[in-house]
Write a structure and sequence with these properties.
The structure holds two protein chains of two kinds. By secondary structure, chain A is mainly beta. Chain A is built from no helices and eleven strands. Chain A is globular and about 40 Å long. Chain B is built from no helices and eleven strands. Classes of the chains: A mainly beta, B mainly beta. The interface between A and B is medium-sized, with 26 and 22 residues.
């Protein structure tokens, strides 16, 4: 079974630029999560999808972050415009039932 | 509120046992998890325990849950250098799909 795929693996941008991350979950997994992991901290949930509907986006900074999961499979997370404090690893995870989740390798974002 | 705490560092000698501890605050947690993160990688699910269990063993890993004290531990027997990583505990609240992660414990195994 293929794991969760994410791209790109690394991204360096300047502040005020835009950036987008892509996630392809494990086949058949209805639940998809985006997390932000700042260096030295645990992952913090940004948004959670169940199929193509949003379950929880309470910690998503909606003035600059957006996410979508069209057709209930792949998902994209966008930051526009980026700030220095957005430098982090962005992790995507998926799960079948919500009792377990499996993580992708993450995208490391550096904002200069 | 929801909070998960872990000690930051643990250092052990190869072949010894490691015990990583975690405390949580949400008494309605139904599942508690241990994840391993190696440098530059995502989180790998190691094991999890349902809240009505006290203990779960899986090869070299033993999870102990003290629900009264809201304390979770992960014991790694015969620790190897390949076990060096950051270990995160996480809880999932009943009725939601929301996971709360601790800050992680960096395990260093000395040869």
């Amino acid at each position: 079974e293929a794991g969760v795929a994410q791209s790109p693996r690394y991204k360096i941008i300047e502040k005020r630029q835009s950036v987008a991350f892509w996630c392809n979950p494990i086949s058949g997994h209805a639940t998809l999560y985006w997390y932000q992991q700042i260096l030295g901290q645990g992952p913090k949930l940004l948004i959670q999808f169940q199929n193509n509907g949003v379950v929880d986006d309470s910690q998503l900074p909606k003035d600059r972050f957006s996410a979508e999961r069209l057709k209930g499979v792949d998902s994209t997370l966008k930051i526009q415009p980026a700030k220095l404090e957005d430098s982090a690893v962005y992790l995507c995870a998926s799960g079948r039932s919500g009792d377990t989740q499996y993580f992708g390798p993450g995208t490391r974002l550096t904002v200069l | 509120g929801e909070d998960v705490e872990q000690s930051l560092f643990l250092s052990v000698r190869e072949g010894d046992s490691s015990v990583i501890n975690c405390t949580y605050t949400d008494s309605s947690s139904t599942y508690l998890y241990w994840y391993k993160q190696e440098p530059g990688a995502g989180l790998q699910l190691l094991t999890y325990i349902f809240s009505n269990m006290d203990m779960k063993q899986d090869q070299r890993l033993t999870v102990l849950l003290n629900k009264k004290d809201k304390h979770l531990s992960l014991r790694i027997a015969d620790t190897q250098t390949g076990d060096s990583a950051i270990y995160f505990c996480a809880e999932k609240t009943s009725g939601t799909y929301k996971y709360i992660f601790g800050t992680g414990t960096r395990l260093k195994v000395l040869a």
